[in-house]
Design goal:
Length: about 650
């Protein structure tokens, strides 16, 4: 077995791989860019080596720097995690030259299966069901248009070396094909160092379901069931689960058989994933094979009890799996929610900033958090916005969902925009609960994004009553307290009184019912954990001036707790007018200005491109919302922009 492993990655996956290595008694080496000098993955490993500047292409994507770090630290092996160099065949070749073992499939397999074009050709030869499309890389935008016309719109333009939603664009006409080609090429080059793209038919309204594979050097190939990964935005997965609530046993077995056939044909070893698109009639099509560990691998670990990272390390050390297909059984249901630094109210655009407060939900039976950050850490513009993964396991799907809801309520993040409330809204949505969703779920149900302040709580009176309790505690009201909690047009009059002396809690009488809160809460605590009429409840509490923001169940509502007389007078207060930004085009996200398409004096039509901002390996196009003349350009090419920074101004 290896004595020392270098982990050529960052964030949560680097920390997660290190955790298994530590349990196996293996020392670990971290690598880091200038931006990650004080990152968590650097702090948790035995050694750490700098590998270059903040830009990924000069650090995490630099094979020379990674290999030099392995040699310098005398590492026996290297685990690439996912993304970055995990599917670059040049890395295992370079490691072999210096005697370092690559923990993953062979270079030849990575070349074949990591290349989406070659993988599709092989799948067709093996009679694996594939999506109609052109088999070759596109030379230019006009080639993309010609290929799209031949296939028939709508089409998907995809990076040949792609993954994680990078380098993917949908096109429904010639103009979108030209534009999609440009953006897909740029993102593919930025993310993978390979700008080849191809076109395939877009299967509309599909499910995204994948099969987990494990194989060793001794002829054993097994599958570990499927994962449902259909909840996505911008082609990037957000929520995954195992098993799928959609498949039947027959389709499940057929997909697994084709996945194993493909793995055997290429003499696969290590962990890998065969991804399929499944239509409404449960007809499935091969999408791609990811010759690496997947982000969502923990759900498979929960339902099978198999540590995939440990198996990858043992296979790389030439040990047999010690498993046959009959030895593998699944138990219960697991669901993973990806916690992102993003602003759902701005159509899920990535966010940056410092984690001023960061408190994970308590890990217990069936609850696991794979995090890449701690309180005080900073999330910048250079890398993926993934903060952590929250994974919950239950006996049934409903059991797993209940654990997920409770864990999300107890997950604290302050100082940066995040998607925690959105995740709760998504997993409690009737379509998700019923298993009736497709890859278009987020776009269809949250077309303009999600704002927790607009989300209707299932029991506003309950939150209002809790606001009354909090307010009475802050103002040290130990006697009966009459008040009104006001939010979003709702007025809830109430009487707050302490419970009997032998109990710790409060009784709150509202016009509709009386709530009995038992528990402890002190001023300054951001979590209020209480038992309400026998039901456990966790609510996040933030003070905003003389008001209280309560967040729970996907809703985030601000309450003003007033005396009855003050509440009566408050309704006559004039609202403060909002500032007028109609003449400005503002940056919707932080990032690097990589393109500026207008100049002062230019005439612009609605829908025309103004600028392109790059952040976290994604390019985001900014378009004019109205026709007009540009009077002032406030930025220059190459500027680092902040959220809401003016880009241009109309006359």
């Amino acid at each position: 077995m290896f004595e020392k492993i270098l982990i050529a990655n960052r964030g949560e996956i680097a920390c997660r791989i290190a955790r298994t290595a530590r349990c196996m008694g293996i020392k670990t080496v971290a690598v880091y860019s200038e931006a990650d000098a004080e990152a968590l993955h650097v702090r948790v490993m035995d050694e750490a080596v700098p590998i270059g500047p903040s830009a990924a292409r000069d650090s995490y994507l630099s094979i020379a720097n990674i290999v030099n770090a392995a040699v310098q630290t005398k590492a026996d092996a290297l685990h690439p995690g996912y993304g970055f160099l995990s599917e670059n065949s040049e890395l295992p070749d370079a490691l072999a030259e210096v005697g370092v073992t690559f923990i993953g499939p062979s270079a030849s397999v990575i070349r074949m299966m990591g290349d989406k074009i070659e993988a599709r050709k092989l799948a067709r030869e093996l009679d694996v069901s594939t999506i109609p499309g052109e088999g070759d890389a596109l030379a230019n935008a006009e080639d993309a248009v010609a290929a799209a016309r031949a296939i028939g719109y709508p089409v998907m333009i995809k990076a040949a070396a792609g993954g994680g939603g990078k380098g993917m664009r949908i096109a429904r006409d010639d103009d979108e094909a030209r534009e999609g080609f440009r953006f897909a090429v740029n993102e593919a080059h930025s993310s993978f160092g390979d700008d080849r793209v191809f076109v395939e038919k877009l299967i509309e309204g599909p499910r995204h379901i994948e099969i987990q594979i494990l194989a060793d050097n001794h002829g054993t190939v097994v599958h570990l069931g499927e994962r449902e990964c259909s909840i996505q935005r911008r082609h990037q997965k957000v929520i995954e689960e195992s098993p799928s609530p959609f498949l039947d046993d027959g389709v499940r077995a057929a997909m697994a058989e084709q996945a194993v056939t493909l793995a055997r044909a290429v003499n696969y070893r290590s962990a890998g994933t065969v991804e399929f698109i499944v239509d409404s009639e449960k007809k499935f099509y091969f999408l791609e094979m990811n010759a690496r560990l997947q982000v969502e691998h923990p759900v498979t670990e929960f339902v099978t009890g198999i540590d995939l990272v440990e198996q990858m390390i043992r296979v790389a050390a030439d040990e047999p799996l010690g498993l046959s297909q009959k030895d593998i059984a699944t138990h219960g249901w697991a669901i993973e929610s990806r916690v992102y630094a993003e602003d759902p109210s701005r159509e899920f655009l990535p966010a940056t900033g410092r984690l001023v407060r960061y408190q994970l939900p308590h890990e217990s039976t069936g609850v696991r958090v794979d995090s890449g950050f701690e309180a005080g850490d900073t999330i910048g513009i250079n890398y993926d916005p993934l903060i952590a993964k929250l994974i919950c396991h239950g006996v049934t799907r409903d059991d797993a969902l209940e654990k997920m809801r409770n864990a999300l309520d107890a997950y604290l993040i302050r100082g940066i925009s995040h998607n925690l409330s959105f995740l709760t809204a998504a997993i409690t949505h009737p379509r998700f609960v019923g298993g009736e969703f497709t890859t278009g779920f987020i776009e269809e149900e949250f077309p303009t994004g999600f704002n927790p302040a607009d989300s209707i709580h299932e029991d506003i009176s309950l939150l209002a009553a809790l606001a009354g309790v909090v307010h009475s505690r802050v103002w040290r009201r130990s006697d009966e307290f009459a008040c009104v909690a006001v939010t979003a047009g709702h007025r809830v009059p109430m009487i707050v009184r302490p419970l009997e002396a032998e109990k710790s809690g409060w009784s709150v009488m509202t016009p509709t019912r009386t709530y009995a809160f038992t528990g402890h809460w002190q001023v300054g605590l951001l979590l209020f954990k209480a038992c309400v009429d026998g039901v456990e409840l966790c609510v996040q509490v933030d003070r905003e001036g003389d008001r209280w923001r309560l967040t729970q169940g996907g809703s985030s509502l601000v309450f003003a707790v007033l005396t009855p007389r003050a509440a009566c007078l408050a309704q006559f207060m004039l609202a403060r007018p909002l500032p007028d930004f109609s003449r400005l085009v503002l940056a919707p996200m932080p990032g690097l200005l990589v393109s500026l398409a207008v100049r002062e004096g230019a005439e612009v039509k609605a829908g025309e491109e103004i600028a392109v901002i790059e952040a976290m390996k994604m390019e985001n196009q900014i378009r004019a919302e109205r026709e007009g003349t540009i009077s002032v350009v406030h930025v220059a090419l190459g500027d680092l922009l902040e959220v809401d920074q003016p880009i241009v101004e109309f006359e």
